[in-house]
Design brief:
17 helices; five-stranded mixed β-sheet; globular; Cytochrome p450; three-stranded antiparallel β-sheet; alpha+beta
């Protein structure tokens, strides 16, 4: 369970940047005339790689041209012009060569975001560990995304706090995510995973994101909150309100989105009031209501921690679950390896979390002047750790761009962060991924990706809006 999204609604909530209009953004980066920019009305067809014994097919020529042009541009422009906090690069999956060049030539990179000002990009694995483990010099207090929070809508949460308050609030919710509690939850997660998979159509294309990834993670989140199960899709809606890009259909303007979030905190306040007057239980709301560290939160701090738990428990896991299907389709040799040797599933889970990196970055703020990586970082500067880049660091991870499900050290990644802010729900994420694939392999010999996924337009949440798939047959 980990932080949240770029503009998305996190602009006003967690400090993620507002997403400008595509035309303005494209013009600044010179994308309007660049061939790698994918326009919304252009179809970039994805044809899955062939299974053994089949003719091997790959992404069509348009998709390959997009990525080839991105690489050419990334290495052609002056390095000081590289700005990686661009939602469009993530929507088109063309951010990779920019990070590759920064790691090689300018791993501690200074740039100026057009809306949110100057910041430093930390792009190498060991540098990210150094920043993430040094909260004395690099604080989470101000914000965890590039933008600063809106003055009139600030929502404190423990991921954006430093010790001692961070430690006390995190300790309050940690028991719900302990190994012992997750062991107790596993049979229920497994039953639900099986029910979801048994309900899927055979021989018909459907959206894996909606039918499987969202459904299972939302069910699990409802259990952790002891949230009324019949209303569980409210959790999905509130998560989407927070993370959907600005201007996305169905989410209204900023005032309307804030109204939905106040509906969220109002709903949870009713649950809080029920549980504070009852005996303590093991759900997250009861834990917060009965803990001295959290029972006196005001409405906005309560909303902030709800946002953290809802999005952290929903978006990140669901995007990795979707990414696992995509990765195995793009790498059919690895899919075959998994089906022939299910014992490597735990390794596959870790490799998928590295390969997907569902949270692309986290921000810190320098608390004093620091010399780092040969650069002079000044007090108050924004420092952004690009987990998505650290997980592809060639100096630390062998063949990092390849998806290899039986790596020698599959858990060597920074997707969960490091230090005191390491993801509190990392074991739950791994559990859900392991269980869903154990149940998949009992039922289906193959899940086929039928088209290119629609990716989230965010440089914070690295995820998917849709993934069309088809299951040819049951076992």
């Amino acid at each position: 369970m980990r932080g949240t999204h770029e503009h998305s609604r996190f602009t006003v909530i967690m400090g993620g940047p507002d997403k400008p209009g595509h035309d303005e953004r494209a013009g600044r980066l010179g994308l309007a005339s660049d061939p790698f920019r994918v326009k919304d009305d252009e179809a970039v067809n994805f044809i899955r790689a062939g299974r053994p014994g089949e003719e091997t097919k790959t992404m069509d020529d348009a998709g390959q041209d997009i990525r080839r042009a991105a690489r050419e541009r990334a290495y052609h422009i002056p390095i000081e012009e590289i700005e990686v906090a661009d939602d469009e690069l993530f929507r088109t999956d063309t951010h990779w060569p920019y990070f590759e060049r920064l790691r090689r030539e300018d791993p501690v990179h200074h740039s100026v975001h057009p809306e949110h000002g100057p910041y430093w990009s930390i792009t190498k694995y060991n540098d990210i560990l150094a920043i993430d483990s040094n909260h004395q010099d690099f604080s989470s207090e101000r914000a965890i995304t590039i933008a600063d929070p809106a003055d009139d809508f600030q929502t404190p949460m423990f991921i954006a706090m430093d010790p001692p308050k961070h430690d006390a609030q995190r300790k309050t919710v940690s028991p719900a995510l302990s190994p012992a509690n997750l062991q107790n939850m596993e049979p229920l997660i497994r039953q639900r995973a099986g029910d979801i998979l048994d309900s899927l159509p055979i021989g018909e294309t459907f959206d894996w994101v909606d039918k499987v990834s969202i459904e299972l993670t939302t069910m699990t989140l409802a259990t952790l909150f002891d949230f009324p199960f019949e209303d569980r899709r409210k959790l999905t809606r509130w998560s989407d309100v927070i993370t959907a890009p600005e201007g996305a259909p169905g989410f209204g303007n900023e005032e309307e989105r804030r109204a939905e979030l106040f509906e969220c905190v109002g709903y949870f306040t009713n649950l809080w009031n029920q549980r504070i007057n009852a005996e303590p239980k093991g759900d997250l709301i009861s834990m917060m209501a009965h803990s001295e560290a959290t029972r006196h939160m005001d409405q906005m701090e309560f909303l902030g921690n709800l946002i953290l738990l809802i999005v952290g428990g929903n978006d990140t896991t669901r995007n990795t679950m979707t990414g696992s299907v995509l990765a195995l389709n793009q790498n059919p040799d690895q899919y075959k390896k998994l089906m022939e040797n299910p014992a490597i599933l735990p390794s596959m889970v870790s490799e998928t979390i590295r390969w997907q990196t569902p949270l692309a970055h986290m921000r810190r703020t320098a608390m004093r002047d620091v010399e780092f990586g040969g650069k002079s970082i000044k007090e108050g500067d924004k420092v952004v750790m690009w987990y998505v880049s650290g997980n592809r660091d060639e100096e630390v991870i062998a063949n990092p761009n390849a998806y290899i499900i039986d790596r020698e050290r599959p858990r060597q990644h920074v997707s969960f962060g490091f230090g005191i802010h390491r993801c509190v729900g990392n074991r739950l994420a791994e559990l859900q991924l392991r269980v869903i694939w154990e149940e998949i392999m009992k039922r289906f010999p193959d899940i086929r990706v039928m088209a290119e996924p629609t990716r989230v337009a965010s440089s914070f949440i690295k995820g998917y809006e849709t993934l069309p798939v088809m299951i040819p047959a049951r076992n």
